[in-house]
Amino acid sequence: GESSLQRENYFLFVGRISKEKGVHIMTEAFSKTPGYKLIIIGDGPEKEGLQKKYDKENIKFLGATDRESILMYMKKARALIFPSVWYEGLPYTILEAFATGTPVIASFLGSMKEMITHGYNGYHFIPGNHEDLIEKLHLFSRKDTSTLYQNARATYIQNYTPETHYNRLLKLYSYERSNNQA
User: pTM higher than 0.85 for the full model?
Assistant: First the structure.
């Protein structure tokens, strides 16, 4: 579809640069695969150390930036990388990725397991395992991913838009009423 045509050749991470976010696993994966570009947006306790170690041709640390820039990078990224090794609730970054039709490559953990359907709107990798992440980057690059972009957007529309939430509540409410009247 058209959404995959406007994409540029980089993967994206957005978030706090800290241990539980698994950023070190991601930077390790990309440092071993110089053919893949990674843009890292965000700040945090691990940023300085990781930047010293991994400031390479293919890995760029942009620091913290405003929401508008984040969305711009998101819309053009090949995929969002979400390498968290921590159980996340409902990660807002993944919702924003889906809203912009961006597939997500995430740890198979917590809500990331539910939100991402492997091969449909992104891919899973083993939490904390940079070699498995590399496998998934290869997989992503080998396959025709055009449907992933459409499916990412569809996931957002079907599950996460405000209207969807509202309609679900309405359905639930009317269902309970009709049952109570029986």
Answer: yes
